Amino acid sequence: MEGATQFALFFVSLALLLAIWRINPAPFVTSAGIVGIVVAIAANDSLSNLFGGLSIALDKPFKDGDYIVLDTGERGKVTWVGFRSTRILTRDDVQITIPNAILSETKIINESAPFPRYRIRIKVGVAYGTDIEMAEETLLEVARENPKISKFPEPRVRFREFGNSALELELLCWAKQPQDRGVVVHQLGKTIYKAFQEKEIVIPFPQQDIYVHSSAGSPQGT
Questions:
Q1: Which CATH number is 1-113 given?
Q2: Which of 13, 127, 129, 200 is deepest in the core (most CB within 10 A)?
Q3: Would you call the peptide bond into 61 cis, given omega within 30 degrees of 0 as the criterion?
Q4: Domain ranges for the chain
Q5: pTM for the complete prediction?
Q6: Assigned fold of 118-198
C-alpha cells in the first residue's frame, strides 16, 4: 500500500506542476495509461505466481530434495521452492525455473513420495530346458548384492510367459533413490549377463523353425 500511495502522490504532483507550467498533459496521460496497463499485466502475473506458490505450500505436492516428473517431460530434483517460482535440477545438471502459476496447474509425478524409492523391472529370457529355479535364484542374488537396491520391499522374480524362443522372466526390485534408476538398470543388466555366463544359463536369441513341404507332401525341416 505504501508503494501505491507514493505512486499516486507522484502523479498528482506531476499533474500540478504541468498545470502551473501550462503544459498539455495529454501525451503524458496517454503514456501513463500505457504504463498502467503494463503494470497491471505484470501485477496480474505476479499475483498468479504468488497464489500458485501459496497453493503449492498448502497442498505440498513436493518439497526440496524430491524427484519429480512434469507432464511436459522434464524430470529432476527440486532444489528450491519459492513464492514466485520453483527450481528443479535435471539429470543433465541443467537448472529449470518454473513459474508457480504454471506449476500449480501442471500434472506432477513425485517419484520420492510417499516413499523415496523407484520400482525397476528387468525382463530376461532364458532358453527352454533351463533350470528355472536356478535362473530365478541367480536374478535374486544379483539384486540383493546391489547396494543401491532396497531391502524392503524385497526383490522378486515373476514368470511371465512361454515366449517364442525363451521362458520370459521378470526381475522386480526397488532402487533406494529415484535418481539412481538409470545406473541401477545399467548395473543389473551387466551383472545378470555375467552371472548367467558363469552358471551357463543361456539367453537365447530370437529364432524360428521353418518347415518346407515337398511336392510329395512330406514335410522337410530346415
A1: 2.30.30.60
A2: 127
A3: no
A4: 1-113, 118-198
A5: 0.66
A6: Alpha-Beta Plaits (3.30.70)
CA end-to-end span of the chain: 89
> What mean pLDDT value characterizes the chain?
82
Name residue 90's beta-bridge partners: 76
The closest of 130, 117, 128, 122 to 192, measured between CA atoms, is: 122
Residue 211 CA, distance from chain mean position: 48
Q: Which residues of 155-168 are buried (b: 16+ CB within 10 A; e: fewer)?
A: bebeeeeeeeebbb
Dihedral sign for Cα 52, 53, 56, 58, please.
negative
CA–CA distance, 193 with 173 (Å, rounded to integer):
17
Report the alpha-carbon distance of residue 104 to residue 53 in Å, rounded. 8
- The identity of residue 222, as a single letter, is T
Q: Is the pLDDT of residue 4 over 70?
A: no
User: Bridge-partner residues for 86, per DSSP?
Assistant: 81, 98
Residue carrying the nine cell digits 513436493: 62
The pLDDT score that the predictor gives to residue 6 is 54
pLDDT at 43 over 90: no
Amino acid at 53: G
- Taking the C-alpha atoms of residue 57 and residue 45, their distance in angstroms, rounded to an integer, is 18
Distance, CA of 82 to chain centre: 20
* Residue type present at position 106: T
